[in-house]
Amino acid sequence: MPISGLWAKDSILLVVTNHSELGDTGKETGYFLSEVAHPWKVFRDAGYEVVFGSPEGGFAPMDPKSFDLEDSVNLEFWQNLDAVEGLATTLSLEEVDPDEFAAVFFAGGHGAMWDFPEDSDLQETAVSIYESGGAVGAVCHGPAALVNIQLSDGSYLVEGKKVGGFTNSEEEAVGLTDTVPFLLESRLEERGGDFVAGADFQEQVVTDERLVTGQNPASAEAAAEAIVKILQGSK
User: Fold this and answer.
1) Which letter does DSSP use for residue 199 in this model?
2) How far apart are the C-alpha atoms of 57 and 60, rounded to whole Å?
3) At what angle do helices 33-45 and 81-88 cross, to 10 degrees?
């Protein structure tokens, strides 16, 4: 049952993965810290409340490789008690009322490749926000959330739109082509998306109407800024 009336419409739902195992490698994964921290700061600085959600709710695991506190924004985030508690006690997407959010933003981290694509509550939340005039954003592996989202008319959200995300080339560069359940670039193209790739590991953000996708961790801040631009332009 959705929880209603807790947030103003000027709130953004930031969704993170609950998945912590990197395939059968025996290594840990989860969300990528900078892909949460940098958008969080952009949204808050623009006056939006950030609410953390996840497919299952509760604790969201962090990819240990991403725990970089030499990044000043990561450090600011990690020293903010509300932010850290928010990731430890995320709301399940079944609990949130999408009508109370101006946008949804899907953070990356390899974990998202496992639990984002098939989650029906995630899909329904994104469709509700998008079709009510809100914005949908995702960065790096966060666009895994988009691959099965179908709008009310049955078309895929990404169909006919320019999109981005972690590229096949980048996946090969990190040695995980055979570990991930699918290749994100290829799947988005299969769904009718016009995939726009930038240089490996360099900032690249693609905006098409109210859909924003960033390619990699370097794109997280700019992707969030593009969401803010859309929302402020709609006021």
Assistant:
1) S
2) 8
3) 130
Q: Give the residue from 94, 211, 109, 200 showing the smallest Cα distance to 157.
A: 211
Q: What is the pLDDT of residues 149-194, one digit of tens each?
A: 999 999 999 999 999 999 999 999 999 999 999 999 999 999 999 9
Q: CA 187, CA 206: separation in Å to the nearest integer?
A: 17
Position 225, amino acid: E
Tokens of 112: 């998202």
| d(C-alpha 45, C-alpha 52), whole Å | 17
pLDDT per residue as tens digits for the range 3-24: 444 344 589 999 999 999 999 9
Angle made by CA atoms 55, 66, 186, in degrees to the nearest 5: 60
Pair of tokens at residue 181: 């359940």
pTM of whole model > 0.85?
yes
